[in-house]
């Protein structure tokens, strides 16, 4: 980021969820409770999986990692949003804004790939049960988690590359409670039409590819289950419910 951009815009104003002063205390309580519930619920899952030896299986290993990512997704902007309910001027520094953009795409990108990994785990468990422990070894599970973080990092780096060199010299109000990338790019002093298209294409490619892989995996699983006995189908349904 060059010095010109830093000297022109040093902070952004977050308009938040509501301008009503009467609603701020109510929103503060509601979102504080929701955030606390998310933290406690996911921490409980992680604690249960790590402390219970019977749950040291690939499915629960991936589930614990998903809970960790959920905590990260909930924490990249929520604490500041809750704190902003208590202040009149909701501002965020330029660097902190870029940090929010970086982390939101890192965590959400990783989560999408991790969900695909969990779908693959269910596919192996139901369609290739005799080879499950061989295919889904501890090493493979760790590699799947590392791949999810790597894809998330590549995704967020590419997204941030579209923004970091944009010149910001005028408006600095973001109509959100966090630095949402499309809204931030609109505040640049140049035409960002092409940049916006690249951002949408980047996110769209990851989202659609993850979605298609999920649909394909569960379609194969359901087709396989239909060909088996009712007992196998009942067991598969209970496995797929979570």
What's a concise summary of this model?
By secondary structure, this protein is mostly helical. It is built from ten helices and three strands.
Question: What do you see in this structure?
Answer:
The chain is mainly alpha-helical and 242 residues long. It has one domain: Up-down Bundle (Rhopdopsin 7-helix transmembrane proteins), CATH 1.20.1070. It is built from 10 helices and 3 strands. The protein has a 3-stranded mixed beta sheet with strand order 2-1-3. Helix 2 runs antiparallel to helix 4 (78-84), helix 3 (58-75) runs antiparallel to helix 5 (94-127) and helix 7 (138-163) packs antiparallel against helix 9. It is globular, with a radius of gyration of 22 Å.
Question: What are the key terms here?
Answer:
single chain, 242 residues, mainly alpha, Rhopdopsin 7-helix transmembrane proteins, 3-stranded mixed β-sheet, globular
Q: Strand count, sense and closure of the main sheet?
A: 3 strands, mixed
Low-confidence stretches: 1-7
Q: How would you name the CATH homologous superfamily?
A: Rhodopsin 7-helix transmembrane proteins
In CATH terms, what is the architecture?
Answer: Up-down Bundle
Q: Which strand order does the major sheet show?
A: 2-1-3
The CATH topology comes to Rhopdopsin 7-helix transmembrane proteins
How far is the N terminus from the C terminus? 44 Å
* Total domain count: 1
| Structural category | mainly alpha
CATH class: Mainly Alpha
* Strand composition percent: under 5%
Total of helices: 10
Mean residue pLDDT: 88
